[in-house]
Structure formats: structure tokens, C-alpha cells
């Protein structure tokens, strides 16, 4: 599953809007929308924030792993 699809699914699974995620990531809704559409590369710091926010591994977000579990 492509990265953009995975972050959209995570957001929807948590019943969040793009605006809410943008606020959590300190970016505009348009920038976040571009991440989900695959129109903008996601910076490493945003990947890390997404991973921490959803409590999943960066590998899961990137599609390297299908196992979302993260161990702290």
C-alpha cells in the first residue's frame, strides 16, 4: 500500500480530519492534503511525528512492514 494511502487510512481510522492532523503536525491543511495525495514528499520529521502520533512504526507508514506495532 502506498505511503499516501496509509497515512489517509490511519487518519480516517482515528476519525480525524485533515485540518486536525495539520494542526497536530503544525502545518497547513493544504500541505497535509498534499502529503495524502502524494503530491509532496513527507519530511523525515513529519514521518516521525506521524509515527509517534499514531503509535506505529515509521516502517509501517512507509509500507516496509505490514505490522503497525511499535515498541517503546
Work out the strand percent: under 5%
Overall mean pLDDT stands at 92
**What's the gyration radius in Å?**
11 Å
| Largest sheet, strands/sense/barrel | none
Name the helix and strand elements from N-terminus to C-terminus, one letter apiece. Answer: HHHHH
**Which structural class should the secondary elements be placed in?**
mainly alpha
Overall, the morphology is: globular
What is the CA–CA distance across the termini?
A: 25 Å
Tally of contiguous helical segments:
5
The low-confidence runs, each spanning 5 or more residues with pLDDT under 50, are none
Helix content, binned percent: 55-70%
Overall number of strands: 0
Descriptive terms for the model:
72 residues; single chain; 61% helix; mainly alpha
